[in-house]
Design brief:
Blueprint: E1 2-8, H1 13-21, E2 30-36, E3 41-47, E4 60-61, E5 67-75, H2 78-85, H3 97-108, E6 118-126, E7 131-136, E8 145-149, E9 154-158, H4 161-164, H5 176-185, E10 198-200, E11 205-210, E12 215-220, H6 234-251, E13 259-262, H7 267-278, E14 284-289, H8 301-311, E15 314-319, H9 322-336, H10 346-353, E16 359-361, H11 366-370, H12 377-392, H13 396-399, H14 402-411, H15 419-426, H16 428-431, H17 435-444, H18 449-456, H19 468-478, H20 484-494, H21 496-510, E17 515-517, H22 523-530, H23 534-537, H24 545-551, H25 557-560, H26 571-575, H27 580-586, H28 589-595, H29 601-611, H30 618-636, H31 647-650
Parallel strand pairs: 13-14, 13-16, 14-15, 16-17
Antiparallel strand pairs: 1-3, 1-9, 2-3, 4-5, 5-6, 6-7, 7-11, 8-9, 8-10, 11-12
Helix pairs in contact: 2-3, 6-24, 7-8, 10-21, 12-14, 17-19, 19-20, 20-21
Length: 651
């Protein structure tokens, strides 16, 4: 695992060293720099040694130095690929997956991506083809930022945004569209970032930068496929899921350093611990909880403990106190790179785990594969009810078939109807333009687009911006499926999973030099599960139904039936207590007015009623507070190094 960075069109070794040093936390074990004067190319890396501890130094070259690579991630099928490549190549390293990727590109060029199973972001300098070639993994586990200025003929890239902000390489101008999206979703989605003209390479994409003509091309190499390619019974699907998930876990145990497992008390991590125990793995598990007054609703320690006791693992618990959060809040903002207002307790689990292990396993992704937190249920319930009413109010000839219709509605979620009939009953063609307005905006938004215009942003700020629901709607419309459950899954995989949950996972784990691996997001496993009929994977009254059936013998019944809590801190409570001084200082009307971004009435309309207990605006206030902290660090302080001040200094 590494942090990578580099550029083309610049001749500045000092800048490259600063870019690389800003990524020290991603790789404290080793570093390297390569410079080439022909096309003014610079490559750099920081290495966290996981495999081949004494070898695997980067940047790495082939025999004739015509290829140079910097690579972040893990190729899980590297041993199998190496066995085949060794028939034609003499390897210099013992078991470095970086060298496997380099040899594979040497043979197959861009088509090497077809053979990779892993999480990765990499760049290869190809002297013969006179280009930089790179890619990001299919699901988006590893980050990749880039900056391209065609006028200056400059291209630069990095694992983290802060690396591109060194020495004025990029102007620190806030991207208004990204800020608008953030206030709605609590994270910045898609290709754009919070800084203008800095972009993410999207999941499953590759790029080619032509060093002669200074052109940048990006394209897709991996797509989601929801089309069923097999018929299978529920029993067979459960057996296959269990087998494939176990194989995915086995692949992610490949490490020359200790491995541990997060255990939240939810189904996903509990299933992993059960499968690991079945495999005979000697295991350490790590859980976090809250025990102070009023925090019991967020505490999952008892459930996690029950799983640990069942399997006899070496279990470790960390109790989070509010003071811990306050002490680390500015540090978290720095490591996160962009404004983020989701849950932050993972920071403490990773910090806790790093005392013992260097590699961790996480259950992230199970929700998106098997139920999406039930996001589709409100839509389906209301759509089916409206169809039922239509038939009930129709002429007699239709009423004759009304009972039959009701039976059809009942079995639709179970995946019995064919795709054409299901699409008709769900009304997707006529409702596709309304899904996000009707569902996302009403249920899953934190600030809808109208409220942002009327009550949040200052006059003129949103002029010319695209409503956030339009962006989500475009993803919903482009999803390669007619099934609404799969469409919602597609939107989540392209937004919240990749640019919130995996964003959070990567930044907060790497802040502590810990590599997190996610077995549920093995691309082959994802492809298999998404081809199972959606009504078999999940049910309106039993979210994650098929996963529960697959692991019911190894997960305690209390966990199978426990409602989803979410791995978050008790923000609502803390905003009115411990965090109140920070809220009153950073969100006061005078400060908001001076920024010229927000309306000062946010304080009187949102903050005051919440602090006084007369209303609940938890997430709107938390989003604003986290943005203000980010603004102080990255815009007002123009930070290039980790901040030395804390929240008390701000108060």
């Amino acid at each position: 695992m590494c942090g990578i960075c580099g550029y083309a069109g610049i001749s500045n070794k000092i800048l490259l060293e600063k870019m690389n040093n800003s990524l020290y936390h991603r790789g404290p074990d080793d570093s390297g720099i390569y410079l080439d004067n022909d096309f003014m190319v610079g490559l750099a890396m920081r290495r966290l040694s996981i495999l081949d501890l004494t070898g695997g130094h980067q940047p790495m070259a082939n025999e004739d130095n015509s290829l140079w690579i910097v690579f972040n991630g893990e190729i899980y099928n590297a041993p199998e690929l190496r066995a085949e490549l060794q028939k034609r190549h003499d390897f210099r390293t013992r078991n470095s997956d970086t060298e496997v990727l380099l040899r594979l590109y040497e043979e197959k060029g861009q088509k090497c991506l077809e053979d990779l199973n892993g999480m990765f972001a990499f760049v290869i300098y190809d002297k013969k083809r006179k280009c930089l070639f790179g890619a990001r993994d299919p699901i988006g586990e590893k980050p990749f930022y880039y900056y391209h200025d065609s006028a200056r003929q400059v291209f630069a890239f990095a694992s983290e945004l802060k690396s591109l902000l060194q020495d004025g390489l990029v102007s620190r101008l806030i991207d208004k569209q990204s800020l608008s999206n953030y206030m709605t979703l609590l994270y910045v989605p898609g290709r754009q970032t919070i800084i203008s003209n800095v972009y993410r390479l999207e999941q499953g994409n590759y790029f080619v930068y032509d060093l002669e003509h200074k052109n940048l091309k990006t394209d897709i190499y991996w797509k989601f496929n929801f089309l069923p390619s097999f018929r299978i019974s529920e029993e067979e699907a459960c057996m296959e899921i269990r087998k494939r998930l176990k194989e995915s876990i086995r692949l992610r145990l490949n490490s020359d350093r200790p491995v541990g497992c997060m255990l939240s008390g939810g189904i996903d991590s509990s299933a992993m611990v059960g499968l690991l125990s079945e495999m005979g793995t000697k295991l350490k598990t790590y859980s976090l909880g809250f025990v102070e007054e009023g925090e019991s609703d967020w505490n999952e320690l008892p459930l996690a403990r029950k799983v640990a006791e069942r399997w006899g693992v070496e279990h470790n618990e960390y109790v989070l106190k509010p003071e811990d959060l306050l002490d680390d809040l500015i540090q978290m903002v720095w490591y996160l790179d962009e404004p983020y207002a989701g849950g932050l307790p993972s920071w403490y689990v990773y910090k806790f785990m790093r005392r013992d292990v260097v590699v961790g396993l996480s259950g992230t992704g199970g929700d998106e594969l098997f139920g999406n937190y039930g996001k589709y249920t409100t839509f389906l319930t209301n759509r089916l009810a409206r169809y039922a009413q239509f038939y009930k109010d129709s002429p007699v000839i239709f009423k004759k078939y009304y009972p039959v219709f009701l039976r059809m509605l009942k079995i639709v979620p179970e995946g019995i109807l064919n795709n054409k009939r299901r699409a008709y009953l769900y009304g997707l063609p006529e409702m596709s333009e309304q899904l996000v307005r009707y569902f996302y905006q009403a249920v899953w938004y934190y600030y809808d687009d109208h409220a942002k215009y009327e009550n949040l942003f200052s006059k003129g700020f949103m002029d010319g911006l695209n409503p956030t629901y339009n962006y989500l709607q475009s993803l919903f419309n482009e999803a390669p499926t007619d099934d609404v459950i799969n469409k919602v899954a597609y939107v989540d995989f392209k937004t919240q999973l990749s640019e919130e949950f995996l964003f959070n996972t990567d930044r907060l784990s790497m802040a502590h030099s810990l590599e997190l691996r996610v077995p549920f997001l093995d691309p082959k496993f994802v492809s298999y599960v998404l081809k199972i009929p959606s009504g078999m994977r999940t049910k309106q009254d039993n979210i994650k139904y098929l996963l529960k059936q697959s692991v019911k013998d190894i997960v305690p019944e209390e966990i199978l039936n426990s409602p989803k809590k979410g791995f978050i801190i008790p923000i609502k409570l803390w905003l009115r207590t411990r965090l109140r001084p920070l809220v009153e200082v950073l969100l006061n009307p005078k400060r908001l007015d001076s920024q010229g971004i927000f309306q000062s009435k946010f304080y009187t309309q949102r903050v005051v009623p919440h602090l006084e207990g007369n209303a609940d605006f938890t997430w709107q206030i938390w989003a604003m507070l986290m943005f203000q902290l980010w603004h102080i660090v990255y815009i007002e302080q123009q930070a290039v190094d980790k901040p030395s001040f804390n929240w008390r200094d701000l108060c």
